[in-house]
Design brief:
Elements: E1 17-22, E2 28-33, E3 36-41, E4 46-52, E5 59-66, E6 71-76, E7 80-84, E8 93-96, E9 101-105, E10 114-117, E11 122-124, H1 125-130, E12 144-150, E13 156-162, E14 165-172, E15 178-183, E16 191-200, E17 203-210, E18 214-221, E19 233-237, E20 242-252, E21 255-263, E22 266-273, E23 278-286, E24 294-295, E25 298-299
Antiparallel strand pairs: 1-2, 2-3, 3-4, 5-6, 6-7, 7-8, 9-10, 10-11, 12-13, 13-14, 14-15, 16-17, 17-18, 18-19, 20-21, 21-22, 22-23, 24-25
């Protein structure tokens, strides 16, 4: 179970935040805005490095730190990948791809850094940079991507929403080109938010929030459960709460956080123990623009 200390102000800005990702060290986080990048030391609550982009340009996906090559990677204008280190932002390299990018995921023990494209393709960053204009132009993915999780370089799971229907898409094989798609639907409800926790390259937990206030857990084993009907375990019911869209994060295998509308002008963040279905921490009286992110053991 997670424990929570006092709230601390890390940074104050009126710019549009794109996302927050882990930095090169455990004490660092990377904040990506539409017009710049800020690297923060969370232990000492100070800015270590701040980078700006030219007027009329914008970043469109969160900057990540690629451990393998000791460099930062960010997406600009949806199709331009920029790689740089802390001393060479303006002198870094640029690669223009032929398919719009959804996000770039950082490398870890189980997989390399990867690029997730809007058409549903998932390729390693190395492969993309070697041939940026050769991204397969498969049939466009219908619907919006809610998340994409790489398990290994060969396997991934993605959740997409098409109108009021939602689906899980499993990628398998070299560069995830072999895909299978199954319906991800709880009762007759609309999916409001979803997040995933990866216990191992073979097991994931998908946490989902539905329009009737139900919070559900779905466990999937690879490759055993792929292609089988999805089973939902209802772990909590939210009553009399207006749930915001696509804003839920996994803190551990048995703990999630989500944003709900507390009253007309405020939001609240609820931290839920999924094992016992208990809401054991609430942060109240937050602005309507509240979004949450997690890196390591911290909730932002």
């Amino acid at each position: 179970m997670a424990s929570f200390g006092e709230q601390k102000l890390l940074l104050k800005s009126d710019r549009k935040l794109i996302g927050i990702r882990p930095g090169r060290n455990v004490e660092e986080v990377i904040l990506t805005y539409d017009n710049g990048i800020t690297i923060c030391d969370i232990d000492h609550k100070k800015v270590k490095r701040s980078l700006s982009i030219g007027k009329g340009q914008q970043f469109t996906a969160s900057c990540i730190y690629n451990n393998r090559d000791d460099e930062y990677v960010v997406v600009q204008e949806g199709i331009v990948i920029r790689t740089f280190n802390e001393q060479s932002f303006n002198n870094g390299q640029r690669f223009t791809v032929n398919v719009p990018i959804y996000e770039i995921t950082a490398d870890c023990d189980n997989h390399d850094s990867a690029v997730v494209f809007n058409n549903g393709n998932v390729l390693t960053l190395e492969a993309v940079l070697e041939n940026p204009s050769g991204i397969p132009s498969t049939d466009p993915l219908v619907g919006n991507i809610l998340f994409c999780k790489l398990l290994t370089n060969l396997t991934s799971v993605m959740c997409i929403q098409e109108d009021n229907n939602s689906f899980l898409v499993f990628g398998n094989g070299y560069q995830n080109n072999e895909k299978s798609k199954i319906q991800f639907q709880y009762r007759a409800c609309e999916l409001r938010s979803v997040c995933v926790h990866c216990s191992s390259p073979q097991v994931i937990k998908v946490f989902s929030l539905w329009s009737d206030g139900s919070v559900c857990e779905t466990s999937i084993s690879f490759p055993d459960n792929v292609g089988l009907p999805v089973e939902f375990v209802n772990i909590k019911e939210f009553q009399n709460k207006s749930i915001s869209g696509n804003n839920m994060v996994s803190l551990s295998s048995d703990c999630i956080a989500l944003v709900a509308q507390e009253s007309g002008d405020y939001r609240e963040v609820s931290v839920i123990d999924t094992k016992f279905g208990m809401c054991h921490h609430t942060i109240s009286s937050l602005p309507l623009s509240t979004k949450i992110y997690t890196t390591g053991h911290n909730l932002y």
